[in-house]
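Record 1 of the preview.
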Amino acid sequence: MTTLRFSYQTKVEFSGDVTNHAFLLRSFPIEEKGQKVLDLMHTNSPIVTGGQYLKDGFGNTVYTGRIDRGHDSLTYKVIGTVIRDDSKKSFEKPLPSYRYPSELTKASPEIINFHKNLNLPSNHYEAAKIISKAVYDYMIYETGTTGIFTTAADSFKGRKGVCQDYAHLMLALCRLSKIPARYVCGITIGEGETHAWVEIWNEGYWYGFDPTRNCFVDEGYIKFCIGRDYNDCPIQRGIFNGDVLQRQSVYMEVTKLKEALLA
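->
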């Protein structure tokens, strides 16, 4: 069992005023057996009108809000404490959509050939270990080479990308192997930005793999949202009136609390 304190902040800046700004956020830890939220504080600037918390089709917490008056930036911050315990898992059946290719995880002929050469065992967990390492070995981590619309086929062809590209490629290979698998977005111990990894279903339980780092997901990871691919898990989306340019900056920090601080 591990107790984590986290802070997550995003600031969206516009080159001029925008109005009628409607947005949604998915920057809240998932509540499940292995991840318990002890406390949580969420703030927005400017003040939001009619904000509310909802659940999407995958069970993720979504905050929707609106700012009608003119403003040239939006900042939101989430601070909280989470207990992670990987010894606690829920027995469940995977959604059917986790078994099939999604828009960003369709396998190209090249990915199919790559998959054939992996010689995977029938056990989902053991096969996922091989797939995760294969993705790690094949890809080169490089920022600025891909974007949110980049597919698994695109990143496989270019052999470069970031965590979401690694996750999409692993998802494509898992689903080719008939392994139910889902995309996960969240944060990990340290400082920086959000991270993406994969969970696979094996004999009733979900297990996390991080192909970007070639490791198993441990209690240093906090899950914000899950889905078929990135399209189901954007941390922030919005629409507004205004002919402007925009820039987004993200900062997160996760630290492990010592037992003495919890007494």
